[in-house]
Structure formats: C-alpha cells, structure tokens
Write a structure and sequence with these properties.
The chain is built from 16 helices and 4 strands. By secondary structure, the chain is α+β, with helices and mostly antiparallel strands. 33% of the residues are buried.
Length: 350
Amino acid sequence: MQQQLETISDFLKMSGFQYRVFDLGRKIQRISNQRFADIESQKFQYPYPFQQKAWLSVLFWDEKTKAEPVIWFLSFPIDELGFLKLESRDSFLRDLLTNVDGNIKAHQQGGAAQDAMKESPFSFKPREDRLAMFHALATVELNQAPSQYYSHAKSYISGEVGFDQWQFLGLQGVADVIARLEVDNNAQALAQAVEKLPDVPLDTFMQCLENVRYSGKLSMAVSERLASEMAKDSPQAPLMASLIRALSGSEAKAERMRLLENILNSPFAEQIDVLAAVSGRCWNDLQDESLLMAFLEAAALQEQTVFNILLVDLMTLPDMRQKVLMSLRNPERSTMLSKCIGGFMGGVIA
C-alpha cells in the first residue's frame, strides 16, 4: 500500500474519505480536490503562498460511519518557482503511513491509537480568529449546527442587546454568523450594524468577514465605514487595515478599487498596517497597473527592509510576479522607488 501512495490526495482517496482542502495563509480559501492533486503533482504552482509557505487545512470524514471529521493543519515550504517542495510533503507522507501501520498493529493487539499530527513538524495551530472561522465554515460544509454562541452573536448584530455589550460576544459565535450570512437575515443585520459597532467588535467581525464573499448592502456598509474612518481627525491604522482586509471579500470591486486608490495616494499609505492589508488581502486588485504602481510608490516610503518584504510577498504569488517585474521597469517611477529597487536587487544578488 505504501508504494502506491505518492501524494496526500492518494492517501485520502484510497482510504475512502470524503475531503475538502483549504488554504489558511492569507485568508480561508477553498482549493478544489482536483486542483490540490494537480498542485501535488506540480502541474500548478501553489496559488496562495504566504511567508513562502503553503498553509493548508485538510478536512476529511467517513461518509459511511458518520464519525467526527478529522482536521489536519499542515504547512509546507514553497520553492523559488512557486511550487510545493515535494521533499517536505513526502516526508510528511512517510511519517503518516508509518503512523497508520502502527495504529493498525496497536488495534490488533488491543492498544491505543496515536494521533498522526500530534508531533508532526509540518503541523501548525492557526491563530484564534482563523481557527474559529474555519470551524464555522466546516460546520456549514458538513451541514452541522452552529455553536452555542451563534444565537447571542445574531442577537447582538440585530441590536437587541445593545452594541455596547460586546464584552459578552463569543468569537466562535461571530464566526458562525459570518459563515451564515445567507441565512437568518445575517447579512442585512450586519450591514445595518456596521456603522454603529464600537471599534473592538467591529474589528472582530471584520477579521472573520475577510474570509467570505459578500455583496449588496453589506459591501456598501463596509465601504462607508472605511471612508468614515479615513475622514476622522485621528484615524486608527489597525482598524483601517481590518476594514481593508474585510473589503477584499466584497463583490463590489469597482468601489473597493476606488477606495484603495484614494488610500494609496494619501498619507494613510505610510502606515505599514495599511500596506500589508492591501498586498496581503487585495492582491488581485493590484493586477491593475496604476494601482500596483501606487502601491509600489507607497511601499518605497518605508525602510528598505520593509520594502523588500512587501515586494517578495507579492512576487511569490503566481499571478503577480510578472506584473510586479513590469512595474519595476516603469520609466516613470519616482527616484525614491528606483532607489528602493536598487536596494532590493542588491540584496538579492548579495
């Protein structure tokens, strides 16, 4: 059996599991089973690298037994061309198969099974908000009920308990609401609440919202709240960044790009939190040549190390590398940007 298994996809298929694969690096995004198999066979580059790694979650279950689903959180390095480093994946697979064989023998001898992920060097624990959102999306995927905190979060955004009573909100309840925008009037209720939410609960809802697609009145509400934050005498960069990340999931692309253009051509672009939110979540918008140039010019106002980090992060994305390289050759770039490009190239060559 071990000789026949060359990929994680092979293991899941041959074991008879139903499974779903998600990227957890930049935001929670579904990767189709076929695309994941193609990534493993290196037909495609990894689509969403973050910090030069693939941050994966594999959700799988046995449809026949209806047993509790198993979740793996796995991280594998990406090579300089953007492909999954197969030696790391292969090492994980060898450890997995060894663990499976050990569990079979333990079961035959009446012993206890061991957790395959417990000590794996490739496993990781997502941060708290990402973990809550993943569990919320998983329950939707599996047609399971939300957590016990869902009803209170739903009541909160409807205004029933007072928006100043956010201390009693459960993070999992917030995630459950965002994962279920299409039911229980949640999208409408959140759209009406966004302008009234205090900063802390707003940040919490926006952290979850960045992981889903949405449109309509909710898109308008998030855009208007971002615009109102920009208009304040003392805007908070972290909250603006949270709103930008959330807006990345909006279907209202034209409005989002208009706001991003305003931000990147304003003093707000000097804030590293804001720049990281734009490149980390709104990278698809940066495929627009003028927006990308505005981003690079803003990044050039940062220290050389920060500029290098932002540039490398963008260039690891398969769809962005050539566009970034073309923009770096733009003859109309500023002297400051030219200087930062020189520093970046010098660092790469060194």
